[in-house]
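Researcher: Predict the fold of NADPH:quinone reductase.
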Amino acid sequence: MTGIIRFHETGGPDVLRWESIDLGEPGRGEVRLRHGAVGVNFIDVYERNGLYQKPLPSSLGKEAAGVVEAVGPGVRHFKVGDRVAYAQGAGSYSEARIISADDLVKLPDAIDDQTAAASTLKGLTAQMLLRQVHRVKKGDALLIHAAAGGVGSILVQWARHLGATVIAIVGSAAKADLVRELGAQHALLSDDDWVAQAKAITGGRGVAVAYDSVGKDTFMRSLDTIRARGLMVSYGNASGAPPAISPLELSKRGSLYLTRPTMFHFTSTRQALARAANEVFDLMARGVIKVQIGQTYPLKEAARAHADLEARRTTGSTVLLP
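Model: Structure tokens for NADPH:quinone reductase follow.
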């Protein structure tokens, strides 16, 4: 039997339950994977609380790393004993699982399970944001919310590597120190007037791109930091869903562009997934991206991990250990 976290109703962290299931054997195109570490992401919170609806009861989690235990018929790219990671397909909050081989990527020897579980989905998200949604170039001024978090800390490091000017928004002085260490030239506190500060930093012009994962509490103010014909990237809802917006709001602020990307649309083929993952893992292996694992919890204590994440008591990435 295999331990797994599931929920039978939406709600707070207390709806998460530890249960046992019989996995069975992998089918055609599938592998059985033994998890070494499991990543926690805000999308897990959105599914648990019902913002993103799923059939119930449901498993949880998109991201993990581990070792292939068995392969089904037709699997060509993986064998028993391979170390792999993935960032899609619900069910990572478990000791082991059956998963499509097409969702997996091989792990370089230089990257351990905890690092991979802490960074695969977040790294792929950062790759999407910096290399596909907007191809960041040297000199771009970027506003990054939740910059000390799992995705944010990777965005800061990667954006600096690309030569951007990084304006990081964080919730405390300690987090401001952290993002400066990661390379942010400017660290602003979320309780301050960061709109005016961002405008001052850019000489009144505004930033090329605002990356907003907070949502409701910051969305409209983020729009006010963007230069004419700049881009607003809304990719999360940590404070709740952003407000409905009239296209005229974009027009009067300088003909802005607005997008709400989802990473899975940018990695929908095996080739696209492998290409993005290889770029992320290469930067990690070279030390360009240093993964910040802020805290770990036993897998059975996933509810505590969710409570801390929602209360913004975490920094960097959160990892569950089976």
